[in-house]
Hints:
Blueprint (H helix, E strand, L loop, with lengths): L3 E5 L9 E5 L3 E6 L6 E6 L4 E5 L7 H14 L7 E5 L6 E4 L1
Parallel strand pairs: 1-6
Antiparallel strand pairs: 1-2, 3-4, 4-5, 5-7
Amino acid sequence: MQKFLNIKGTPAxxxxxxxxxxxxxIKTIRAATADGTTTVISYEDGTATTITTAxxxxxxAQVQLQTPAEAALQTSWTNPVYDVTLVLTPSxxxxx
Length: 96
């Protein structure tokens, strides 16, 4: 069963305020720097989801995605969606 993080936040130009991100097959969740604006979720199949926020501190966007992804994967298959509200609202979420 596929599982998803439901990223919630204040709507922005390229973010509706609510978006599902698949978490099965995640290889890494990383931010290039502690204060960068981009966090990338890379998947085993070579695709990636890029989440852009205001500049975080101490990798907080990365941690705020890693912790619920781990928790969501431990829930029952009858709970495929796990809600996440990031401290820094995404300005863009792109799947490629």
